[in-house]
Amino acid sequence: MTKAIQILLIIKKYVIETQYLKQHLLFDCSKRAEYRLHDRCQQPIEKNLYNLHASTNKCIMAQPESIAGRCLLCNMDVSPNNDIGWRKHLIEKCTANGRRKM
């Protein structure tokens, strides 16, 4: 029996894999104009919060995507940045996954 994990997010009428949420917010989302990619952490930040986010300088610098992805649910790096790494992260490590047993 497999564990139920939060791999898919339902946003409006779309079903999006968690690992592709960044790309969705920046390129596919109907509200993509409301997001801006932060250079340091490489995360999409709402434009109205961008200056506050950038001024705190507390975000974690992103690794190259060839090494690790960044989970937008919990802000942890996911390595390896592939289906296996993401599945392991969501099942075992993601503190924001409500279906994961703590």
From TrEMBL:
Centrosomal protein CEP104 Zn finger domain residues: 14-91
GO annotations of cellular component type: cilium
InterPro entries reported in the protein's UniProt record: CEP104-like (IPR052607), CEP104_Znf (IPR048738)
Superkingdom in the source lineage: Eukaryota
Any Pfam family hit: CEP104_ZnF
PANTHER family reported in the protein's UniProt record: CENTROSOMAL PROTEIN OF 104 KDA, GLYCINE-, GLUTAMATE-, THIENYLCYCLOHEXYLPIPERIDINE-BINDING PROTEIN
Name of this chain's protein: Centrosomal protein CEP104 Zn finger domain-containing protein
